[in-house]
Structures are given as C-alpha cells and as structure tokens.
Amino acid sequence: MIELQAAVSGALNGSLFALMALGLSLAWGFLKVINLAHFALILLSGYLTFELATATGLGPIATIVVTAPLMFVVGAVIQLGYERFDVSELNSLLISYGLLIITVQVVTNIWTADFLRLPPEINPFSAEAVGVGSLRFPVPTLLAAGFAVVLVVAASLVLGRTYAGKALQAFGQDREIASAFGIDHRLLGVLLAGAAGASAAIAGMLFPIGGTLTPDLPFEWIGQVFAIVILGGIGNVTGTLYAGLLVGAISGLVAVVWTPSTSPFVVFSLVVIALVFRPKGLFPQKGG
Amino acid sequence: MLQVNDLDVYYGDAQALREVTITVGSGEVVSIVGSNGAGKSTLVNSIMGILRPRRGRIVLDDQDITRIPGHRVCRAGIAIVPEGRRLFSAMSVEGNLDLGAFNRAAREHYGDSLQWVHTLFPRLAERKDQLAGSLSGGEQQMLAVGRALMARPRLLLMDEPSLGLAPVVVDEVFEVIEAVRGEGVGVLLVEQNVQRALDVSSRAYLLAEGRMVMEGDAVGMANNPELRKSVLGI
Amino acid sequence: MRHKGWLALVGIAVALVTLPAIRHATDFPMFYLIFLSGILFWTAQSTSWNILSGYSGYFSFGQGAFFGVGVYTMAVLFGRQGMSWWVAALAAGIASMLLGLAIGTIAFRLRSLRGEIFALLTLAVPFILASVARLSKAIDGGQGIVIPVPEAPSFLSQFQEFVFFVGGVVALLALTVAYVMQHTRYGWALFTIRDDEDVAEGLGVPTFFHKMIAIGVTGLIAGISGAVAALQLGFVSVEGTFNLDVPLFVIVMSVLGGRGHWAGPMVGAIYVYTLQNRLASGGFEGWSLIVLGVILVLVMLLAPQGLMAGFRRRPWLSAGVFVVVFLGLWLLGVTTDPVTSLAAALGVTAVIAFIPGGRRRPELGEPETGPPQEHHAPVGDEPVAESVGSGRPLLVAQDVVKTFGGVRALRGVSMTVHEGELVGLVGPNGSGKTTLVNLISGVFPPTAGTISLDGADIVGSRPHRIAHLGIARTYQIPRPFTSLTVRDNVAMAIMFGRDPLGLDASRRAAVEYLDLVGLGGRADALPGEINLHQRQLLEMARAIATRPSLLLLDEALAGLNPVEIDNAVDVVRRIRGSGVSIVLVEHLLRVVNQLATRIVVLDQGMELAEGEPAVVMRDPAVVKAYLGRQADAAGE
Q1: In a domain? residue A286
Q2: Handedness of CA B105, B108, B109, B110 (dihedral sign)
Q3: In chain B, which among 145-164 make CB contacts under 8 A with chain A?
Q4: Which tens digits make up the pLDDT trace of C18-68?
C-alpha cells in the first residue's frame, strides 16, 4: 500500500509542477521563447505571498489579488523586451538564466537564505490532511492539484473556445497567415506572456502554503518542470498536466521502491528515451 | 480599386521587383503570370504587407496601404488565398472559417458570410467539424478561398490556386473564381498556369525577372506568340 | 598574429615558473599568489567550457558535472585511497572525459536534438551526479571527504606556491589546447558547425566526430582542473561541489570575454574574478550574483561578441590604457592595493572595448600573403557547349520515389548524368526538382529507388560521405559561414574535401577557386559585407573547392539582374571547363537553354521529357505543363 500512496501523492505533487510547467510550455510553444525567468516569477510570488499574508493577516490565497496582476505585468514587460531585441530561442535561454540568477540573489538579499514558513495562524491548511480510503493527502497538496486542474481546464477552454484562444492557436501554427487575417502577433504574444506570469503567481502562492520557502528553490524545480514540458509536448496544454501526473507518480514510486535520490535519474532517462522515440511528447494532440 | 505604382522591392541587396505597376478595378479578375522566380510571390507579399517596398505606392480605393503593418491589411479590405493553401491544419473547417472573420468588421457579418461560403462550397458545410489537415487537396483549396471570403474583402488575392491539384479539381477552383467575381469582389490572380489564368481574367500582366514585360486584355495576350517565347525561353 | 599568440603563451609559461621565485626574492604578500591561483583555476574551467560551447555553439549548463567528477575522483583516489596525487589527477581527467563522451554519444546522435534541448539536458546532469555522490557511500555518502596536503617538489616549498604552480600548468594546458584548436582544422570544424551544421556536413566535415572531440577535450581539462582545485580545498562536499557557481561563472566569463577566441574566456575570468574579489572585500557579497546576472543579460543583448572582439579592434590603445591606468593608480598610491588598481584599469579598458569602430578584424585567420598554392585544378577558359569527358554514366538515379507524410514529391523519377554533361533540371513549381537535389546530396534518403555515383550506391550515406565521394551542391539561398571570411569559407571546403590540405595550405589554395568565380578581390571580406550575387558566387567557389566530380547548382541565379545573370553564366561555363559535371536546377529557361547540353523536365513528381533543349521545349506535353490547357499556340 505504500506504493499506491507514494504514487498517488507523487501524482498530486506532480500536478503542482505541471502548473509551473504550463506557462513555460505555452511560451516556448507559441512564442519560441524559453523563459527561465518564469521560475523567477514563481519564486518572487511565493515570497510576496508570504509577506502579504503575514503583513495583512489575510489568508494566503487572497494574496493572488495582488500578485497575479503584478506578475502579469512583469511577464508582459519581459516579453516586450524579448521582442524589442529580437531574441533568438537559444539566446532567450541564456538571458532568462541571467534574470533568474539576479532574482534569486535579490530575494536572498531581502529575505535571507533562511527557511521561511507561514505560521499556522495565517496558514489554515498547514497541518491538515484528508483521508480517502486508506490514503492520506495533505490539504496543501490537494489544493495545488485543484488549482492545476482548474488552470489547465481554463487554458484549454480559452484556447479552444474563445476567439483569442483560436487566434493564438492559429498564430502558433502559421504566424504569417495568422497575421494576414488580422491577428496582431505582438499583442497576442504580450498577452500570453502576461497570462503565463499570472499562472506563475498562482503557482508561487502554493509554495508557502505547502511548505517552506528558500531562495534556491528554482534550481530544484528546473529539472522536473522541463521534463514535464518535454514529455507533455511543448505547447500542449492537457499533455502538460498528464505529463505532470506521470512524472510525479513515477518519482514518488521510485523514491519508495528504490531511494529518493534515484528519481531524478529515472526521470532524466525517461526524457532522453522520449526524445529519441517521441520528440513531440508522449501525448500528441489529434491532428497535430 | 487597387493601384500599385512603380513598386521596387528588395530582398536585402537583391532587387526582386522593378517599377512594377498594376491596376485592378472593382469586380475585375486580373492575372499576373510568369515563371517562378519572376517575382510573383514577391508582389503578393508586398501587397500583403509582409515585405516593405523600397519605392512606390500601393493604394486601395483611397487608402495608401504601402507601409501599414501586415495585420492591418486584412482590415483594409484585402484577403489572401495563399500559395499552398496554408490552412490551420490542426483546426476544424469551421475553426478556419471563424478565423477568416477575425477582424472586427468581418465579425459583425459573420452569419451572412458563413451562409454565403456554405452556398458556394456545400462540401465545407457538410464537413464543418472535420480537421482541415484531413481534407482532400481540392477541398483544402475551397476552404482556403472560403476562409478568405469570410473576411469580406473587396479584393481577393489568390496565389497559385492550381498548384498541386488535379485538372478536374482545378476546373472547380476556377469556377469559384467566376462565382466570386459575380458577387462584386475583385480578384488578383497569380498563376503559373498561363492558359487557365487568361481564360478566367479580363486583363493580365506578364512578369519576368522582376519586371512587367507585357500587359493587356486576356484574349490578346493568349494569342500573342511573344508570350510563349518569354515563358519557355525559346 | 600567430606569433603574437605563441608569444603570449610562452610569456604566461615563463611567468608561472618564475613567479614563485620572484616571490621568494621580493617577499610580496602570499595573497597575490592566491589571487592569481584563482584566476588560473577559472581560466582553465572557462576555457575548457568554451571549447565545446563557444567554438561549436552547443551550449552547456553542465560544466559542474565535469568539475564535480574531477573533484570527487581526486577526493576518492588520493584523499581516501592514498594514490599519488598526480595519478589521481590524470584519472580524474580521464573519468571526466569519459563522462563527456557518454553524454555526446547520446546527445549528438539524436536528430531531434536542437541546441536548446541539449542545453536543458546538460542542466540536469550535475544534479543527477550530485544525487549519486550523496547517496553512494563509496563516493561521498553525505559526509564529505577530507583531502590531505600532498607532497610537493622541493622548489615549491609552500603549499600555496605548489597550488599556484600546478594550477598554472593546467591553465596553460587549457590555453594551449584552445589556441591549437583555433588554428587547426579541429577548431575550424567546430566554428563551421556553430555557423551552419548542415552545410558543414555537406562540405565534408564529419560533424559527429568533431563534436565528440570537443566534448571529450572539455571533460578532460575540466576534470584535471577540478582535481587540482580539490587539492586546494582540503575538504569537499556535495553541496560545495555541485552548486551553481561553476556552471554560472564559466558561462559569464566566456560570454563576457568572447566565445570565439582562445583567450576570450581567460580575459573574462580575469574580469569576473577581480570583480568578485573586490565586491567581497568591500562587503558586497550579496551583490555579486546580481552583478553577474546583469553582465550576462547586457552582454548577450548589446555586445554578444564580448570583450576580445573589442580589444582586437584597438589592440594598442586597449593595452596602453590598461597599463597606464593600472600602473598609474598603483604607483601614485591612489588606491590602497594593486587589485583595486587592476579592477579600475580593467573597467576603463572594457569601456574602450565596447565602443564601436576601430580596425575590422575577422575573428579567425588573417590576410594571407604569399603565392597561391596549386591545388591540381586546371582552369579552362573556352566556353564549352558540347560534352567533354568520356561520356560514361556518372550519376544514375533509378525509379526514385520520395514521400513526405502524405505528399508524394517524387513518383518514380529516373535520371542519368554522364561525365562532362551540363544537365538542366527544370519544371513548374512543385515538380520535385529541389527534392531530387536534396536526395542526391544526401540531405534525406529516398522512400524508394536507387541512386549511385560511379557505380557505388549512395542511398543512406551521410552527407559528408557523399561529399567525399564527389558530389557538391549549392543552396538556393546562399548559406555561407558568417564568421569566416570569403577566403576562409573556401578554405574550409578544401580542408575537409576530397584532397584535404592543412590550414595554411588550404587558405593559400582557396585563392584559385575565388579567381575562377571572380571573387579574388574580395577574399578578405566577410559574407555579410558582399552582395547577393557575390554570395552566390561564393557558394559555387566553396562547392567546387571540394573537388567534386558532380556539382548540383540549386537555383543559383535567383534574384539577379541581367548583368549579374550573364556573369553567372560565364562562371558556370568556366566551372564546366575545369572538368566538373553539372546539374543545373533553374527557372530561368532562357539561361538553361543556352547552357545545358541536355534538359530534363519534371512535372508533379514525374519525368515529363528529356533531351536537347530546343527539342524538349517544343514538346507539346512540356508546353502544356508550363502554359496550360492549350497545347498549340498560334504562330507555331
């Protein structure tokens, strides 16, 4: 039974990583930008959530009202920067790496490298857990999974049902012809980057709820998040969620069946194998 | 309606179009013929705003559209049926048509436009949820035309519509051009298949090595032996 | 310039050997030796990183992996097992090199692996190694490893001197390897891979082999350097070894210093290390990563060539300003210690480097003087309209089919090119001409059918093999190596072609081919500085420099004005006169009719007609394909 618990808990944790991966994957797929600064936004949001929650005494979830619009703007501005300097895909990786380093250091300077944890008075979810049958799940984990599913469904709906979403898909498939029918790629790109930033804010909010904050977190995230992006298919919304659940479940299982340190190796091998046999991801969209 | 004057277009330092001048009147079908590399695609891209001309003007009715950004050309009244169709292949037939009407003015008349397109192309109505990438060549060409018509253009720009299609299908495509002309939409047809193009047009221009080397009414040009010499190189 | 480079290396070697002795004599503080040791370490690390990532363009975030393997091999073999330190250091280098080769075997074989994904994969490798090290008791087990002080040779009495000396040897090794690579075919192969890997492969460069050399060398040097660093540290732990510092610093140092030059990473190391040092001593440790991040972002956006490019444009001014500011501040006592003067001098000199203008220097190579070297290519001057040569079949393509997804681009085409012919391959848009050229040059294999050259089957061969067998091609849109001069583009083709010459000999022999196409006067220009027509001529010169028996010209006349077209026609005639058989893919039929001995007409993936131009172009089927329904026009 430990295996089942490990797998399901792992999958739920994986959904949080899928949430982080979503914005990154969409930007990479549609805007041809690999934005490591996305992790910087998640980190910043986490710390801002912490500050706002402790300063105002509001629940941590309520801080989204401030962080989401803020990160929307930041994401949009960064995208404008990439456009203005006509940054190539590879160079966007390097430049955003620089931005990430800067952010991590700034966070360390302001908040120190100490572990930060929201006190239970402010974080109502910290100690609670919910039982389903013989399995138990901490509430923060369920919360994260819930947000992930909601966001993925919302993104799917927007992409599939709204004019803006369809315009984005068209833009991703054939930039020139989309433009010929009136789709302003610059505006669209900035809006998408802003939305990715807002999703980063939501992901960031979930960390102080679920555990501790430290400035080095992004470097723990990068490996898994990119594994999810690649396995799910770059730009594939639902694929990202499935990949998150899969990677999470596998990581959890491996940690229990072998050792926790073997997980990264297994995931890495999965990614390499996927690149050889299924470079478009494990969950191809129909007609793609 | 469309007036292109003395257009000079460069790719970097190579001149692709030299002093090109053409006119298309309302409801007219005008052809641009010539072999590949002559500059036909360059002309299309310049009108659509993908390329910036170095000299010359492009005027649609009274509006100077020479330098407007690419995504505003559609709003100005020109829609394109691109070479090779270039449909959004992962979207449905309906989705492609929807996107044709993306610009605000067209969206207001969405219902009427859709009905018109379905009348012209009944097969598209039947297959509206099918993925565009899974249609046959001829159906894809119809969809590409339909998508452009959804934008309610004054001028339809068709780039090599016969490419890669069987002759019977090409017949259908050219019938559509007739129908469109009947509705008052002007058509600028760029075609490699000289005879077909001349059959359906009232006037034509022959482009060679970036220059306009011949122009006139379609019938006259079809009977002109110089035309054949220029295209075949002998 | 060559001699200046060697002088610099010798100078560094001399300084390394004598500095400890000087220190004994003058008794300057040990601090400066330690400072220089730090620079030497980072020089070795960033130079080794640059050999893979800078020279070949395969960006790696995983330098920490090589460093870590080096550190832990030394720690386990010397610190724990008690092997002698220099054997352990060598073993460390070899272990790290093997890691690099393993990564390369997986990564460089994957066709779908673009540069960005390679970079992301390398991001993961250090983390995995860290886990393995932390986990395994045989390696670290989470406790860390103590490393005792090694026994030093007698002339290096103090430990720090020993570290300085050994570190210096490693740095010198790194610099020498980078220097040698830059001036030989190994480095040049990497530069062309960086500029355009597909074109390089098509010119005969075995790309996989050279990338493996690059990653192997990187691993080797980084491993030895890491091993030596472990000696200095005395105690190693997983967190201290596999952290962010090494991967980040080598990237910033190389980007700042300049990734295209062997001395670039060293310059960057001097700058960054000095900066770090001054920030730390001023109490600003918290700012160092911020500053590094800002430097990375700004240099990538505004001056991606780095400092070396700027210094080479104004070498005397830069050196002069540096010396004046440094000595001035130090000797006049304006600053409290030499390192601060150094920092100030570096800062001022950097400003100079970033001012645009100055003497234009191509990144590689220098203007060559000396007589052109004969390369066994007789040049014919008379225009030849009939077949020359034996007329035996050279290239035979039989029933070739190519399908892409659901589209059949070629449906069973057969074509033979005889020695000495100039075959015109024509047809309306979408007929499959370029697909056929791509199949013959090996860009992708046919779905069915056979293609043979001189009787040997070439289906499935890698493009560089096909180039060595004797087929060369040009691209419709010219793809020159943008960081090499016109001359060096051609030299590349000679260096890796069928009759390879060394670097210098190739550069001299290149002139001959440039003269054949009429580009002799622009030999030292960069491709960005010449116009489209000249770039197309460069394509041709580069292709024939591989000494092919068959040349495929893919729409070599696109975008030219009438004068340029006539010139190009002359050049094609001259090329043919030199003994190369040609397949000419063209839309401009009047030109093809003049040049070709035979025409093959394709339409919708099938062969429509072939034969003499005058006959073929009157064939009713051909007329119909080009003009449309009416097969007979009035007046014929």
Answers
A1: no
A2: positive
A3: 147, 151
A4: 887 777 777 777 888 889 999 999 999 999 999 999 999 899 999 999 999
Query: Burial of C153 by CB count in 10 Å (0-12 exposed, 13-18 middle, 19+ buried)?
Result: exposed
Q: 3-class SS at C387?
A: coil
pLDDT at C376: 45
Measure in Å the smallest separation between the Cα of B120 and chain C Cα atoms. 25
> CB A128: neighbour CB atoms within 10 A?
12
Rounded to an integer, what distance in angstroms lies between the CA atom of residue C238 and that of residue C131? 9
- List the alpha helices (DSSP H) in C303-404: 307-313, 315-331, 338-354
Closest partner residue to C593 among B193, B231, B233, by Cβ?
Answer: B233
Parallel, antiparallel or unpaired: strands C598-603 and C422-426: parallel
Pick the closest to residue C595 from C624, C623, C619, C574 (CA basis).
C574
d(CA B88, CA A178): 9
- Answer yes or no: are the C-beta atoms of C610 and C599 closer than 8 Å: yes
Kindly state the average pLDDT of the residues C365-374: 49
The strand pair at C145-146 and C235-236 is best described as antiparallel
Minimal Cα distance from C531: which residue of B? B13
SS3 track for B147-188: HHHCCCCCEEEEECCCCCCCHHHHHHHHHHHHHHHHCCCEEE
Cβ contacts of residue C7 below 8 Å, gap of 6+? none
**The two three-digit tokens of residue C73, written as one number:** 């091999």
What percent helix, strand, coil does chain C show, rounded to 5? 60, 10, 30
In a domain, A15, yes or no: no
Determine contact, residues C486/C524, Cβ cutoff 8 Å: yes
Pick one of 2.60.40.1640, 3.90.1150.10, 3.40.50.300, 2.60.40.10 as the CATH number of C393-627.
3.40.50.300
Which of these, B78, B97, B77, lies nearest to B87 by C-alpha position? B97
Eight-state DSSP code of residue C78: I
Task: Give residues 513 to 542 of C whose Cβ lies within 8 Å of B.
Answer: 531-533
Partners of A224 on chain C (C-beta within 8 Å) are none
Q: Which domain holds residue A102?
A: 21-216
A120, A141, A119: which is closest to A130 by C-alpha? A141
Q: Tell me if A273 is assigned to some domain.
A: no
pTM to 2 decimal places: 0.86
> Tokens representing C492?
């590349």
Residue (of C114, C228, C224) closest to C165 by Cα position: C228
DSSP B136: -
- Chain B closest-CA separation from residue C554 CA (Å): 13
What secondary structure does DSSP assign to A206-225, as a single string? HHHHHSEE-TTHHHHHHHHH
Domain count of the fold of chain A: 1
The separation between CA B78 and the C-alpha centre of its own chain, rounded to angstroms, equals 9
Start and end residues for every CATH 3.40.50.300 domain found in chain C: 393-627
**pLDDT recorded at residue A243:** 93
Averaging pLDDT over each range in B37-41, C290-294, C337-341, C531-535, which range is the top one?
A: C290-294
Query: Is the ipTM of this structure higher than 0.85?
Result: yes
| Cβ(C497)–Cβ(C546) below 8 Å | yes
In whole angstroms, what is the distance from residue A247 CA to residue A230 CA? 11
Helix (H, G, I), strand (E, B) or coil at C386: coil
Q: Give per-residue pLDDT as tens, C72-112.
A: 999 999 888 888 888 999 999 999 999 999 999 888 877 65
**What are chain B's domains?**
1-73+195-234 (3.40.50.300)
Residue A203 lies in a domain: yes
- pLDDT band at C361, cuts 50/70/90? low
Q: Do B233 and C561 touch (CB under 8 A)?
A: no
Token output for A90: 């590879």
CB atoms B70 and A180 under 8 Å: yes
Q: Which residues of A touch B75 (CB under 8 A)?
A: 182
